Amino acid sequence: MTGGKAGIMKDSIKYALEGIGEGWRNHPNFRRQMVILAAVLAAGWRYRISGSEWIAVILASGLVMGAEMANTAIEAAVVCQD
């Protein structure tokens, strides 16, 4: 672990990217959600949605991906208890 606020931020980003990689490698539903997200972002770019619409898309996508990761964590915790 590195020191200072910059080090904490680097560590946080590193762990977040590791979690995304874990989701991509081991969880098919996560991969599906990411492919759908890519399609939604491409459609938004293609149809030139407004700034407020981009904010809505990004917030909704973040909620969906966050829920998917929370679900994955809960499933992992339940499997560990069995």
From TrEMBL:
Cofactor note: Mn(2+), Zn(2+), Cd(2+) and Co(2+) support activity to lesser extents.
A biological-process GO annotation: phospholipid biosynthetic process
List of residues binding ATP: 15, 75
GO CC terms: plasma membrane
Membrane topology recorded in Swiss-Prot or TrEMBL: Multi-pass membrane protein
GO molecular function: ATP binding; kinase activity; metal ion binding
UniProt cofactor(s): Mg(2+)
Residues noted as binding substrate in the record, renumbered to the chain: 68
Record localization: Cell membrane
Catalytic machinery residues: 68
Amino-acid positions noted as binding a divalent metal cation in the UniProt annotation, renumbered to this chain: 75
InterPro entries: DAGK (IPR000829), DAGK_sf (IPR036945), UDPK (IPR033717)
Organism domain of life: Bacteria
The entry's keywords: ATP-binding, Cell membrane, Kinase, Lipid biosynthesis, Lipid metabolism, Magnesium, Membrane, Metal-binding, Nucleotide-binding, Phospholipid biosynthesis, Phospholipid metabolism, Transferase, Transmembrane, Transmembrane helix
A Pfam family the protein falls into: DAGK_prokar
Entry-linked CDD domains: UDPK_IM_like
Family under the similarity heading: Belongs to the bacterial diacylglycerol kinase family.
Protein name: Diacylglycerol kinase DagK
Organism: Candidatus Woesebacteria bacterium GW2011_GWA2_44_33
